[in-house]
Amino acid sequence: LASNNSETEIELRTQFASERIAEVQQLLQDRGVDPSGLNVALNNLTAHKVAIANLVAQRQELKSRAKALEDLFEQKEKELEAVFKAAKRELKVERANLKVQLAQAIANGDTSKVDSLRAQIAEIEAKLDALEAQEEAAEEALEAEEEKLEAQFEAEEEQLEAQEEALEKEQEKLEEEAEE
Length: 180
Hints:
Elements: H1 2-30, H2 36-108, H3 111-179
Helix pairs in contact: 1-2, 1-3, 2-3
């Protein structure tokens, strides 16, 4: 929305300055004076208008790229979550099966099998803990990469805004000169 307002404002300012230049050109022509200097001013205004419009377009493109990357990161986060969720689910099912077998072994009084099953359950618990740690590390790495790209986009946007402001100031100067 802000870029549309900037474009509209730039368009209006340029149109106003162009009209003023045209009025002065007509006055000078009516008096027989060569208005070539005004043509240069008009060309400068037009060039600045095009440059600002290009910067606005670049900013829009930057925002589109940022949105596409944000969507991609969201998708990757969901995929990552799904992978870890499935792996945890498998381990939990395996643990539940082992617990059922453990209960049967205890009921049967099979102490060697009980010890073996307890060790397997402990191993699965360790795998679940390790999986949680891996998931956190993967999420943090993905988040860090996303933040890095966001910072890069913000820097690019600030650079474009600074260029746009400089061009707008130059255009205001040209408009003032055209009004004199």
